[in-house]
Specification:
Layout lengths: L1 H22 L16 E12 L2 H21 L7 E13 L10 E15 L5 H10 L4 E8 L4 H11 L1
Antiparallel strand pairs: 1-3, 1-4, 2-3
Length: about 160
């Protein structure tokens, strides 16, 4: 009998402690909003080229990307603000249904390379977009506006939330 009572007492103490912890929990939520004028844009562009051979498609895409990056550099974009991304090479198929008379076959290749560029001079953004198209960018994947140094604005929003 003594063992049963002791185990019940221990269970009650453990359970009460856990319940007490829940009762002492404080949860606080805050929301702060701060508006700021963007001072930077990030553009995502792409270069896509087709050719009969895989190597030719890759070479054509690489040449156009080099042209785009060289132009960006001549426009004052720092190399740290330019990044290539997402290189892909895929076959171009004919007769995808694979009729009995003519099975599917590769008739060429398409290569694509993406470029992300941070433009810190927003007044130059339109001109830079025009120049990228002239130099071979034939895909536009998006434009994001942001801040070069978001920390002061984030600190202000945290302060408003508190």
């Amino acid at each position: 009998m003594r063992i049963t009572v002791l185990s019940f007492a221990l269970w009650a103490l453990v359970g009460a402690g856990a319940w007490a912890d829940d009762a002492r929990m404080i949860s606080v939520m805050g929301q702060g909003t701060v508006e700021a004028v963007p001072d930077m844009a990030t553009i995502s562009i792409g270069v896509t080229q087709e050719a009969d051979e895989a190597a030719a498609a890759l070479a054509a895409t690489s040449a156009r990307v080099r042209d785009v990056l060289s132009r960006m550099e001549s426009e004052g974009i720092a190399s740290r603000d330019m990044q290539t991304q997402g290189l892909s090479l895929q076959p171009i198929w004919s007769n995808m249904r694979g009729d009995a008379d003519m099975p599917p076959r590769i008739v060429g290749f398409v290569a694509r390379n993406g470029v992300v560029v941070r433009v810190r001079d927003l007044a130059a953004l339109g001109r830079i977009l025009d120049l990228t198209v002239q130099d071979g960018a034939n895909g536009f994947d998006g434009l994001l506006f942001g801040l070069q140094d978001p920390e002061p604005v984030q600190a202000e929003a945290r302060k408003a939330a508190v």
